[in-house]
Specification:
The chain starts with a helix and ends in an 8-residue tail after the last helix. Helix 3 runs antiparallel to helix 4. A 6-stranded mixed beta sheet has the order 3-6-9-12-14-15. A 5-stranded parallel beta sheet has the order 1-4-7-10-13. The protein has a 4-stranded parallel beta sheet with strand order 2-5-8-11, with no helix packed on it. The longest helix is centred in the N-terminal third of the chain and has 17 residues. By secondary structure, it is of the alpha/beta class. Strand 14 and strand 15 form a beta hairpin. Helix content is about 30%, strand content about 20%.
Length: about 190
Amino acid sequence: MGFARIREDLAAAKLRDPAARNTLEIALLYPGLHAIWAHRVDHWLWTHGAHFLARAGSQIARWLTGIEIHPGARIGRRFFIDHGMGVVIGETAEIGDDVLLYHGVTLGGRQREGGKRHPTLEDGVAVGAGAKVLGPITIGARTAVGANAVVTKDAPEDSVLIGIPAIARPRPEGLNVQAFLADPEYQI
């Protein structure tokens, strides 16, 4: 984890969180970033066969941040977890670049069999507070998942997912995915 990636993470947090005041505050006080930074170390250990150390590191990060990221999960660049408490990301989850998650989001599995069990979020996806994205499904690029939605089926890119179970709708042209999540019309 180089300094360029850390600066990129800090810039992504500042871009996505209107409450962010300065870089020092973000670096020291944002548990979502601390969880991501710990995950990078844990993922490196995981991919190099040090599974016990990777799991131990992820548990320590969970105790400190309230965010559980399995060290096997694959996470892209400029990923940001806003607030973070209660976020769970499973072992086979794949997260693209420029993805935003709010607190209470679960990227979980639905079956016990081996193999791919967790979702894939493509680039630019935003997932609202409390949403559950379950199973080996793919959420297409630039899709917004509304607060408290329960998603169990693939979604095309540029869609909006709301409801229980979530229903995919085309994303209105020009709609800012992050701003959408704050629109009360689409919250549950």
